[in-house]
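User: I'm putting together notes for a lab meeting next week and I want to include a structural view of one of the chains we've been expressing. I don't have a solved structure, so I'd like a prediction I can at least talk through. The sequence is below, exactly as it appears in our construct file.
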Amino acid sequence: MTTSWWQTCVIYQIYARSFQDTNDDGIGDLEGIARRLDYLVSLGVDAIWISPIYPSPMVDFGYDVAEYCTVDPRFGDLPDFDDLLMHAHRRRLKVLLDFVPNHSSDQHPWFVESRACRGNPKRDWYIWRDPAPGGGPPNNWISDFGGSAWQWDEITGQYYYHAFLKEQPDLNWRHPAVQAAMYDVMRFWFDRGVDGFRIDVLWHMIKAADFPDNPPNPAYQPQMGEMHRLLQLHSTDQLEVHRIAAAMREIADGYGARGQGDRVLIGEIYLPVDRLMHYYGAERPEMHLPFNFQLIDTPWDARSLASAITNYEAALPPDGWPNWVLGNHDRPRVAARRGQAQARVAAVLLLTLRGTPTLYYGDELGLSDVMIESSQVQDPRELREPGLALGRDPVRTPMPWDDSENAGFSTAKPWLPLHADWRTCNVARMADDPQSILALYRRLLALRRTSPALSIGDFVLLNVEYEMLVYERRHGAERLIVALNLGERQHRLQLPDWARGSRALLSTLEDAALVEGGTLLLGSNEAVVLEAG
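Assistant: Thanks for the context. Below is the predicted structure for the 533-residue chain, given as structure tokens.
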């Protein structure tokens, strides 16, 4: 089996504002990431994905892009990026950027031109509509941040569409000139040596051409957020988006075909599994990895997890490569959802499933969501719909490096507060503790790197019993058993005959699980990797 680097790698997501500050403004920057590359190498990851670093008014913290082909001064400049890329590649780390093609900032020159007058050549680069026949917005579509997705422009007498904030107008991806301009953005960064993109809200990029109303959501509850009042039937996941995804893939694959190294495209797509699979491509290849977010929301019990894993595996197209994540910059951290003990079990699950895992910065330290006082809120999602626990600030707080001032993140006041226990929960302290969750991640990543069964092997579900989830990973003669205890009670598990002589390679507990007479004794909140024998 021939594999590409993106199939065997572990990706580490860096929220650039919160990783490392070097210019004393309380905000992380590119030089800060460069300074911490050796940490990432020692952790054992293979690639980094960096949140948007482009010039931006920062209304949505970089996801409102004002210029696509340079770097925001808050983070540095293009030479700083080139320096980071060079040093990462010297360490054999791949670098992925966050690409935000669905919308721009309202301060982007394209939109400034578009809204200048109806006759401007760039008018149709964005989505403009007349009011409804009786007045008001053209349809009932709701912004993902609440409120109407249409903003009235007094000067030109039309509404423009914004799936998110009014400061983030959606580009019109049906326009050939928009497609050409954005494909050139991809080429700009690929030509600099970027190894791939995570493509923001890919499934949003094409809207139904006649803009019909979205239907009501019968399952809506107010605590879900206003966006869920309607089903996004016509405003997302339109058939035509697959031509766009295929064109992006063709650009990426062209670099590998020319001997310039394989590039990867990862699509952010929040859809049910059957619809997610379409983004691998049918007639033409599309995303290498349509992000699979199931582990974030699946109930944390053995049967639910087993069902999610096996159904996903069964749904994959013949050439589709799986991927898994436990969290990201938009969703609660795994330690907040599952607790510290199960966060260790979750680490084993993430790094032993078949496919490419993505690790969110700080999860290797067991960071939980940070309490943000109302006076400290930065996130527009929380500001627009307060009190619903939809805000993203709690998962975007600074990385704690040591017990010095501001946890070694910055000499200035950080843009968001640190977690309360940063003096003990930090990289330096945990690096010296062989039982820390950081040490566990390092052991897991080292094992994955040396084990073909874990990196490219087959997955076979063995047992779903009580609170235990047990599966096999195998490649050639190598056979590993992964057993997860998702509860507080100890359990005994009878191993298959071929595994009666197994030995523990790794455990989440100091006293590793025992194998006696072909029976595995699995402790409370324990996960173990066994080598069959």
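A couple of points you could mention at the meeting. The chain has 16 helices and 19 strands. The first helix runs from residue 5 to 8.

User: Perfect, that's what I needed.
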